[in-house]
Design goal:
This protein is α/β, with parallel strands linked by helices. The chain folds into two domains: about 80 residues, GMP Synthetase, Chain A, domain 3 (2-Layer Sandwich), CATH 3.30.300; about 250 residues, Rossmann fold, CATH 3.40.50. The strands form three sheets. It has an eight-stranded mixed sheet, sandwiched between helices. The protein has a three-stranded mixed sheet with strand order 1-2-3, covered by helices on one side. The chain is globular, with a radius of gyration of 21 Å.
């Protein structure tokens, strides 16, 4: 069999990676593809960070080229993260290529813990990442990041973000005392968040993860309409009441033209700290059913594990506290899946039409 560059390109396009969802040529991932004697020389560039995925993808592609063309291969792989579309009436922000909102329909599902570990996982995969704590009434990211610093402002106009575990971070919790309640009405909260976002000197971010407050009321809708969001991640638990509220969150994002990148099912099972037994105490299959119903991906499932809570409370979330653990690897897989969906597209959710008004 005579191998040509054209047959090499065809073989590369026959290779459909599950995260990309299409052939490498169709995805625009091929930078270079040449023949060097009996070997293929291939350079790839992905649209999402993949430090923890690189070697696996290279090994599978090498096997594919050997099987289809009988070639050995020298493959190099990197990534470039581009800015993606936001809501029609908004413009992307300077120094931030993509904003990913992490939301839940109700409180108590572990959304903030997922948000901080998602941000840390994206960084571990090779991206420049920030996190914005959008929960003005109950900010939790300062504690989870283990920082009590106050932001500095050399010019009196813009604040420098707090740097924690390699993340650029901002929260109202960095500006007020822990015991000081935020007794503000909705418009004041929206304005405060706009200032935290717009008056922070973010430095060349690939992703800004926004930890939204729980719920789907006026405040959440206003934030979703004002922040230029590239995609949203919905966090739920398997129990029916959480799933009902998660559906409302999806509907809200659909209404303001923000694609839902997928669903994270938190507390999918409990791990006994004594014997290691797994038990689905909140039910089974809810997150998968919700994702299928909405036409989006189940990005991953996470256990109800004592270590996750302890590590977040201590200011060292799981991805940095135990980077090689199975749970940390789950967070990294979720991060890759979410970033890949943003890079290569998501299907529109199959929800019925709804109306949202100010009444």
């Amino acid at each position: 069999m005579t191998v040509t560059r054209e047959s090499l390109l065809a073989a590369l396009d026959h290779f459909v990676d599950p995260l990309i969802g299409k052939g490498l040529g169709s995805a625009g991932a091929i930078v270079r593809a040449e023949l060097d004697g009996e070997a293929a020389v291939v350079e790839l560039r992905l649209g999402f960070p993949a430090a923890g995925y690189r070697e696996d993808l290279i090994a599978r592609l090498s096997a594919h080229l050997a099987g289809e063309l009988g070639l050995s291969a020298r493959i190099s792989l990197d990534w470039r993260i581009e800015a993606h579309a936001v809501q029609n009436n908004l413009q992307p922000m300077p120094q931030i290529r993509n904003i990913i909102a992490v939301a839940s329909g109700k409180g108590g599902v572990g959304k903030s813990t997922v948000a901080v570990n998602l941000a840390l996982a994206l960084r571990a995969e090779g991206a420049r990442v920030g996190i914005l704590d959008a929960d003005i009434y109950g900010p939790s990211q300062p504690r989870m990041l283990g920082s009590s610093e106050r932001p500095t402002s050399p010019d009196g106009k813009l604040m420098n973000p707090i740097i924690a575990h390699g993340l650029q971070a901002m929260s109202i919790g960095f500006l007020v005392d822990d015991a000081q309640p935020m007794i503000w009405r909705g418009p004041m909260v929206t304005q405060a968040l706009s200032q935290l976002l717009g008056e922070t000197r973010w430095d060349d971010l690939d992703y800004l993860v926004v930890d939204l407050p729980p719920g789907t009321g006026d405040i959440q809708l206003s934030l979703a309409q004002r922040i230029p969001v590239s995609g949203a991640v919905i966090v739920t638990t398997p129990q029916d009441i959480a799933l009902l509220d998660a559906r409302k969150g999806m509907q809200m994002f659909r209404k303001v033209d923000v694609p839902v990148l997928g669903v994270v099912e938190n507390m999918a099972w409990h791990v006994c700290s004594n014997c290691g037994h797994h038990e689905a105490i909140f039910g089974e299959g809810g997150g998968a059913a919700l994702a299928q119903e909405a036409g989006v991906e189940l990005l991953g499932q996470l256990p109800l594990d004592l270590s996750i809570r302890q590590q977040a409370d201590s200011g060292r979330p799981t991805v940095v506290a135990e980077p090689e653990s199975g749970i940390a690897q789950r967070y990294r897989e979720i991060a890759r899946r979410a970033a890949a969906r943003l890079a290569y597209g998501v299907e529109a959710p199959a929800f019925p039409s709804i109306e949202i008004s100010d009444d």
